[in-house]
Design a protein that fits this description.
heterodimer, A: mainly alpha, 3-stranded mixed sheet, 7 helices, about 65% helix, globular, B: mainly alpha
């Protein structure tokens, strides 16, 4: 089991990213090739079939897509399986209490930062209610938590949760798989 | 008695022991229960939520509840409460958490009814004579209101179908009877001390009555009813 100092060093970049990332800054913009690659890498890494990556243009469309029940393939269940495995591995490495404290700290930093960014972008773009902005903030903070967890478990940039966070770091919001397409707002 | 105003943590140390003890009790209770609620209800509810939108929103709610715990814990640390006293091991969580969460409808009802109960408590603290606690209550209030609205919005959505409506009514019937106890016993000594020092404004009985009246209206909006409770009208 490594010490708390090692864990803090492992996760320092995520604590810094919580407030530094340009959360939601490019919602609705056309997708670049790197963003399509990360969308594919995220889902392929979770074991999902190869699917096209499609941009979502606005908040109402994003709300509609995100409100659809999760069908097949169940990417959320796949993420949850990965999360549980990572939690076991990272707890074994660092100790459950130290890991929980470190991740809670990151989430606590991300909670206000993601909310402020989502509310600002929603106001600028229009078409989003307060609840949708909060859902975006929840998704962003959750993605940071998942990527930090993957790092704490010893995984690098190849992990699907790292790819997911790269999309948020690019100012996007990956919405999962809907209607046989990987949607990125 | 003239109302006192305690503007800083440093000023708290010069107040009577009864006042300091009362503030500590409230801070410990919130620090423990905000965390416990997030652990037993909000976090597990993410898996029960029916869509990514509902799951992310529930993530957000869980994070905010943890955030409330952190705020109260930090205030507790500032006023000299040891961290180990602000855990569920040291102080039993409220009985409203003694409910096994098994469905999305139950969670939505809990957010609607339990977070509304919390709003009433926070409303009183928003005029508290200890200003750091007052500031914290005011900061927390919009998020608690959002959590209650979250419960209302999703209950409303569930009530669009007969099965959903029945599930929400069933959850209300089973969960609501636990809530009046949340406001404490009538004639409570603690509450009398809180009011004496301007920490809270209302008696437990007044708050409970207000809660019952207002929750009746909220549930009526959904076309549902509250179960009858012994000794509460």
């Amino acid at each position: 089991m490594s010490g708390e100092a090692d864990l803090a060093a492992d996760l320092a970049e995520f604590a810094q990213q919580a407030s530094a990332l340009p959360w939601f800054a490019r919602l609705g913009a056309p997708l670049g090739e790197a963003e399509r690659d990360d969308g594919r890498a995220h889902m392929a890494g979770l074991g999902m079939p190869a699917l096209p990556v499609t941009a979502v243009p606005d908040w109402p469309t994003a709300r509609q897509a995100a409100s659809a029940p999760i069908g097949e393939p169940d990417w959320w269940a796949a993420e949850e399986r990965f999360r549980r495995q990572l939690l076991d591995a990272a707890s074994a490495r660092h100790g459950a209490d130290a890991l929980r404290a470190a991740l809670s700290e990151i989430v606590a930093l991300a909670t206000p930062a993601t909310m402020a960014a989502a509310a600002t972008t929603a106001a600028r773009m229009g078409g989003a209610d307060q609840a949708m902005a909060r859902a975006a903030a929840g998704a962003g903070a959750q993605a940071l938590y998942l990527a930090a967890l993957a790092q704490a478990a010893g995984h690098g940039q190849q992990h699907p949760f790292a790819a997911k966070l790269r999309l948020f770091a690019a100012g996007r919001w990956p919405l999962g798989v809907v209607g046989g397409r990987i949607l990125v707002f | 008695m003239e109302r006192i105003e305690v503007k800083t943590v440093a000023d708290l140390k010069t107040q009577p022991a009864e006042y300091q003890q009362a503030i500590r009790k409230i801070v410990v209770s919130h620090a423990v229960n905000e965390l416990f609620g997030a652990q037993v209800f909000d976090e597990p509810a993410i898996a029960l939520a029916p869509s990514p939108y509902a799951k992310w929103l529930t993530c957000r709610v869980a994070m905010e509840e943890y955030g409330h715990h952190v705020r109260f814990r930090d205030l507790g640390a500032d006023i000299g409460i040891p961290a180990e006293e602000m855990t569920a091991d040291a102080k039993s969580p409220l009985s409203i958490f003694d409910f096994e969460l098994t469905s999305w409808a139950e969670f939505c009802v809990i957010k609607l009814l339990a977070d509304f109960a919390e709003i009433l408590q926070v409303e009183d603290l928003a005029t508290c004579s200890f200003h750091p606690l007052r500031a914290l209550a005011r900061m927390t209030m919009p998020e608690e209101q959002f959590h209650c609205q979250f419960g209302m919005d999703f209950c409303r959505e569930l009530c669009r179908t007969p099965d959903g409506k029945a599930a929400v009514q069933d959850a209300i019937n089973r969960y609501y009877p636990r809530l009046p106890a949340f406001f404490g016993r009538p004639g409570s000594t603690n509450n009398a001390i809180y009011r004496k020092w301007g920490i809270k404004r209302r008696s437990n009985e007044a708050m409970r009555e207000d809660y019952v009246t207002r929750t009746h209206k909220m549930v009526e909006e959904l076309g549902l009813t509250l179960p009858k409770l012994d000794g509460v009208h």
